[in-house]
Amino acid sequence: MEETIGLYQLNQYIQQSLELNFSSEIWIKCEISNAKSSRGHFYFDLVEKDPQSNRILAKSQGIIWKTNARYLEDHHGIEIDHLMATDAEMRLLVNVDYHEVYGLKLIVSDLDPNYSLGQLELQRRETIAQLKSEGLLDKNVMRPMPSVLQNVAVISSSKAAGFIDFSKELNANPYGYHFTVDLFDGAVQGNRAPADIAKALKKIEKNHSSYDAVMVLRGGGSKLDLAAFDDYELCRQLACCSLPVITGIGHEIDVSIADLVAHTQMKTPTAAAGFLIQKAVDYQAKMHEMYNESLIAAERLLNYERLSLHQLWSDTHARAVQVISISQVQLDRSMDKIRQELILLLQRKRQQWDSWQQELSLRSPDAILNQGFSIVEKNGKRVRSVHQIDEGELFKLFLADGDLTAKKVKDE
Amino acid sequence: MSKKKLENYNYDELMTLMQKNLGRIRESDVPLAELTELIAQSKKIYELATAKLQGLEDQVNTIVEEKD
Question: B35 and chain A: CB distance < 8 Å anywhere?
Fold first, then answer.
């Protein structure tokens, strides 16, 4: 029978071999997946994939003990759980540990955040180049943006400070504008985020006529926290969204690829709320301006009509005054003429009258009597013939200076 | 002429209608009766838009006469 050893002994040999070959810690590069935490300790898989096929080439279990996790967080200014949630390749300092019962574990004692960031940046550039080549960087910006965004679908986390800031800013708008915000709650960081956001986008697309825009909101964080917004698939879906997408991700210095494919990029969730308010303010101001312009134009038109009417009245009045004036002159002239004619007529009549009067006075009985004539009357009747008076008969003689009774003696 | 409810207009359509009215008012040959009508409609559009922004559009009488 060949030599046979117990499993424990075999594992002890393995342990000794490993200790002999890995007496000191060693830097490795790999990705982290299936991360879990328990009582402050972090357990995960370390994986290396084939860059071309993405096939897993190697896989080991990794651990960051609680005490070391705290040290790493303080030392590098990172949060380990956030780091675990990224798909970025990492550079880790590990201690190869082998236990007879629990097998091989890689105990992480340190990490190189700059390496991960470098890897992320590399990946980010590739993603941007791919989106650009597919025409997706400018796709969403072509979507028409309504003048007012009053009904918005918000993709964020209800517990995230970013969404709380956004809601606070929107509700505190001093103009009393009303906004309807439908929150599609999900993870906005870590490797779960792209899937959650994609799921939310699908739901929104089914009911897209109810919304004016989609908003993707997340407060500030480290570059690793925001790495989810550089995910190719997520950005592709945002670019292809049928509604305009507005992002408010991170702080002012952060520009994610989601920002690049979005229709409008705002620096923060608060600024995104300000954007909605400002659009409403601009719209109302524009409407007010147009209404005022309408009033001014109408006033101008009325003034013009009033002026025309006044001008017409002035012209008519002036013409009437002119006509009246001319008529007055003509009337005055006619009156003068009539007056003069009348005077002449009167004068002529007077002269005629005077002539008649003179003639009459010359022919009056008194004038005739003064000329030496006398009037003969018998018994009150005028005597025109000598035969009317008999001889010896009395008759009356009227002379210029008196009358007398005479007696007919004989006819001559 | 047909009756149409302005409340069925979205913000951009309201603005387009307001612009259309303004354009017509700016023309010099608008009869006074039409001018009065246009101003009344523009006032209503502005009031409705403001009310909509504040979520109070139900409080505005939005029936107006509009040309087909």
Answer: yes
pLDDT in tens, A35-56: 888 999 999 999 998 888 878 8
Please tell me the predicted confidence (pLDDT) of residue A411.
81
- Average pLDDT taken over every residue of chain A: 90
ipTM of the complex: 0.86
Strand order in the sheet with A180-185: A180-185, A151-156, A213-218, A245-249, A264-266
Beta-carbon separation of A298 and B22 below 8 A: no
Q: Do B22 and A295 touch (CB under 8 A)?
A: no
- Structure confidence by residue, pLDDT tens digits, A263-295: 999 989 999 999 999 999 999 999 999 999 999
> Does the beta carbon of B51 lie under 8 angstroms from any beta carbon of chain A?
no
Which residues lie across from A38 on neighbouring strands?
Answer: A41
Determine the distance in angstroms separating the CA of A310 from the nearest CA of chain B, rounded to an integer.
Answer: 16
In tens, the pLDDT along B32-53 reads 899 999 999 999 999 999 999 9
Instruction: State residue A98's pLDDT score.
Output: 93
Q: Of A28, A392, A85, A63, give the one whose Cα is nearest residue A226.
A: A85
